[in-house]
Amino acid sequence: MNDKLQAWMEKLKSATNLFTHKGTVKSARITYQVFWNLFLLLMTVVILGGAFATGVGAGYFASLVKDEPVRSYDSMKKDIYNYTETSDLYFSKDVYLGKLRTDLEREEVKLDQVSDHLVKAVIATEDEYFYEHKGVVPKAVFRAMFQEVTNSAVQSGGSTLTQQLIKNQILTNEVSFSRKANEILLALRLEKFFSKKEILEAYLNVSTFGRNSSGRNIGGVQAAATGIFGTNAQDLSLPQAAFIAGLPQSPFGYTPFTREGAIKNNLEPGLTRMKTVLKRMYDGGYIDQKQYAEASSYDITKDFIGPKDNPTEKYPYLTVEIEQRAIEVLTKVLAKNDGYSEKDIKNDDNLLYKYKTLASQNLRQNGYEIHTTINKDIYDAMQNAKDKYASYGPDKPEQTVDPETGEKITVMEPVEVGAMLIENKTGKIISFVGGRDHKKQQLNHATNAIRQNGSTMKPLLVYAPAIDLGVASPGSVMPDVALRLAPGLNRPWPLNYSLTYNGLVSMRYALTWSYNVPAVKLYKDILSYRPAEYLEKMGFTSLTKGDFEQLATSIGSMDNGVTVEENTNAFTTFANGGKFIDAYLIDKIVDKNGEVVYQHKVEPVDVFKPQTAFLTLDMMRDVMTKGTAAGVNSQLKFRSDWAAKTGTGVDFYDSWFVGTNPSVTFGLWMGYDTPKSLDKNSYTRRTNNLTALLINAAYDIDPELVDPKENFEMPTGIVKRSYCAVSGLLPSAACSNAGLVESDYFNAEDVPTKVDDSLIAGNFVQIGDKKYLALDSTPAEFSQRGLILNPEFIERMVGKNFNNASQLIPKRARWANILVPDAKMVDNGKRPDSVMLIASGNNLTWGPSNDKDVIGYRVYKGSSRTASIKSGSKLTLTATDGSYYVTAVDIAGNESAPSNRIDIGNVAEPENVTESE
Fold first, then answer.
1. Which of 265, 635, 803, 820 is the 20 to 30 A CA-CA neighbour of 735?
2. Cβ contacts of 672 within 8 Å, gap of 6 or more
């Protein structure tokens, strides 16, 4: 042992001597210095190379982002939260209607209103280091870049939620290093300005999630939750949350619905993606083994909801109308905010286009609430009534061009309908009917169809303006005769729809039965006052210069026409005491912050005096109770104080009813889209029936609105006065004796002051069923006392050239004894022919004379006249014993030769028969 130890010690000493030997030490020192210098050189090269590479990389990065502006907090906030959110539509009383039609449905939601399951699922799937990183995960970026450069088959992605938010809201989907560099820079800046909660909330509202159960595109987790599972985002179950969290990677690949809203045949991609999300949640510790197992085996397909009613499909006329009106309203609001007036944008097409485009974009992107005046229940009831009505009339053929082939084809065109219900005092459009079937005809016949309004024009343009101007009153008398009122037309115009004339009638009576001639003549009398200006004040928007000048405008024949809304709205002027209140449908628009950006204001326009409005209403009451609208009144379920007017367009193209009571005004039009005649024998009945049906439908929903308890109130300044029905002036003794005195309401300022001078006393005779003025030589026994129209009065009424004054006399009993000056029978200059007398027992009979001027017959017994019988009476006499004969007497008093002689009973002795004087 000692020997071995001694040997080891010797070797150690020898080795020590080697390292301590001067030569050895010198050699080692030289070697060390060489290696040390080489190491230092290598480190220098590495450091310098790294610095160079870093510099080059930094320079390259700087060159990529050199055009990206330095964004402020406010700028980034505006961009991040500027995600498209669909506007919501509401009926009146905040009843939800649905979303405005758009390519993408979205509904904003706060983070605390999102299920915790969904938040965790999104983080586990899209960004597991979300709460640790500062906007970017370097190793993920390098990995993604390496995969991109090497064109790796595996692309793991390198974007955080923050980066994805930047890409969606500020940048584009462009695939380039420049875009990626900007994305990284902005992500870092976004994390500096915003909290993780704010970033996550924005991401959940921005991401797209495929389609909902109605086939519409959806964005944001709230729209996804309601559109796929029919629940709110905060109420999502674990498997539902996992399914939604998996959608953003491939929204239209994983969505369970087709664009038609049907369930896809192959749901496997979406189901597999859901299980992937659940696995990542489990791996990340967000759920335990039991939750993972239960959620993975859950049949999520049973939670998919069926298609929901699309408001555009269920309420097509309404949603389109709301959109159009909301754009109009918001156009003015946006322009006003920039300092432009309504007049500015109306007179500048470029400005109008600019703000109209902005308004349309804002409505689809900014999540407004659009509140309307439409009563949902009344609207639904009126649509149901319209759909159930089966008597519109026949479809008629119409030639058109096939848009695909360009060939002419024949289609069957149905009778269309447009209707409107307006609340008088506010102008609220309570309901409307846009047409029979939106799928076949998209034109809204209540708001956009311009048609001739027929006789519904008369109270608006003729009678109310004439009353307002002090030219006429309800008791004013007008001629309904064959006048030639159209310049250059060599025949009577206008014609009444019945093609008959009714003589002298009051304005009230003419309106009740809708006679055309009195309306046109009165309109001609006031045309110099430009009465069409009244229509402008009442909201008529399609008037032309011709409408101000043409007489046909007075009976509703216009160059263009009027909509149902405008016509109905105009009639509310009477119910509002002469003030026009413009009808409206958009009540208010609220932005997503709850601020009211638009609130409708009622701004009445003075049109008629209150007295004028009442007098016109009172006349139209008769239209409803006993005139052309009585067919509506008889079918209503209630009795309100209605005033109405019907109308028929030229050639029966249009059929109208407009009626108003103290609460609401209702208007209805029926006709073909391409003007064609309605069934002449039934169109009035069809219109009246549908009108009653729709009004009753509204009444069933809201009786207090449709059937107010109050009546129209008579304003001060209205008096009731008697007048002569012949002239409209104060009654004369002759008029009173003839029983032709009537009474009516007048504006106290316009009561008649002159006494009637239309009648002259005189004698007349009757020949057949006609009456003629008696001549001086006419025997008194055959004439009777009567009244004759004063020639001066006739000239004032119909002018000098009218040659059929007998048309002025109405065919009514109380006018029986009124004649006209030209009711004359000219003596033919000869004695009448004799007649043949016949006896039957004691009864004597004879036939009428062949002469047309015979006014009666004298019966003689012996040589004495025993009876005088007027022409037109029964030509018979019961005789006693004696010898009889008969003579005929003409209007000039000439007497015919005696008839044959008839003896009755015992005749004492023959008597000589001589010709009577």
1. 803
2. 396, 398, 413, 414, 415, 416, 653, 678
What are the helix (H) ranges across 338-443? 342-347, 349-365, 376-388
In 3D, which of 353, 376, 470 has the Cα closest to residue 98?
A: 376
pLDDT of residue 65: 41
* pTM of the predicted model as reported, rounded to 2 decimal places: 0.76
Determine the distance from the C-alpha atom of residue 104 to the mean position of all C-alpha atoms in its chain, rounded to a whole number: 27
For the segment 109-129, the average pLDDT, to the nearest whole number, is 92
Distance of CA 384 to the CA centre of its chain: 17
CB atoms within 10 A of CB 472: 25
Q: How many residues does the chain have?
A: 917
Q: Exposed, middle or buried: residue 319 (CB in 10 Å: 0-12, 13-18, 19+)?
A: buried
Supply the pLDDT for residue 839: 93
Question: How far are the Cα atoms of 138, 389, 529, 672, 694 from residue 679, in angstroms, in the given order?
Answer: 81, 17, 38, 11, 21
Give the model's confidence band at 42: pLDDT under 50 very low, under 70 low, under 90 confident, else very high. low
Strand partners, 580: 605
The residue that leads in pLDDT, 149 or 638, is: 638
Q: How far separated are the first and last CA of the chain, in Å rounded?
A: 203
Of the candidates 582, 315, 571, which has an alpha carbon nearest to the alpha carbon of residue 433?
A: 315
DSSP H helices in 461-596: 464-468, 507-512, 516-526, 532-537, 545-549, 564-575
Note the pLDDT of residue 60. Answer: 41
Segments of 391-442 assigned E as strands: 396-401, 408-413, 415-423, 429-433
DSSP 456: G
Instruction: Please give the pLDDT value at position 113.
Output: 94
Q: What is the CB neighbour count within 10 angstroms for residue 680? A: 11
pLDDT digits (tens, 9 = 90+) for 639-659: 999 999 999 999 999 999 999
**What are the distances in angstroms from CA 564 to CA 327, 382, 432?**
21, 16, 10
Distances (CA, A) of 1 to 5, 7, 11, 652, 828: 6, 10, 16, 142, 190
Which secondary structure element, helix H or strand E, spans residue 766, and what is its range?
strand 759-767
Tell the residue number behind the tokens 């030219």, with chain if given. Answer: 471
Q: How far, in Å, CA of 861 to CA of 858, rounded?
A: 10
pLDDT greater than 80 at residue 142: no
Burial of 138 (0-12, 13-18, 19+ CB in 10 A): exposed
507 touches 473 (CB < 8 A): yes
Cα dihedral: 219, 221, 226, 227 (round 10): 40
The single residue listed with the structure tokens 């050895």 is 24
Helix, strand or coil, per DSSP, at residue 899: coil
pLDDT for the residue 63: 46
Cβ atoms within 10 Å of 496's Cβ, excluding its own: 16
Query: Is 831's pLDDT higher than 70?
Result: yes
| Residue 429, helix vs strand vs coil | strand
Contact 548, 559 (CB under 8 A): no
The counts of H helices and E strands in the chain are 31, 32
> Nearest Cα to 313, choosing from 374, 258, 378, 261?
261
pLDDT at 403 > cutoff 80: no
pLDDT (mean) for 189-206: 86
Summarize pLDDT for 841-864 with one digit per residue, the tens. Answer: 999 999 999 898 999 999 999 989
Structure tokens given for 129: 């280091």
Contact predicate 885/898, CB 8 Å:
yes
The pLDDT, as a whole number, for residue 78 is 67
Share of the chain above pLDDT 70, in %: 86
Peptide linkage before 494 cis (omega within 30 of 0): yes
Q: How confident is the model at residue 64 (pLDDT cuts 50, 70, 90)?
A: very low
The two three-digit tokens of residue 499, written as one number: 């093609």
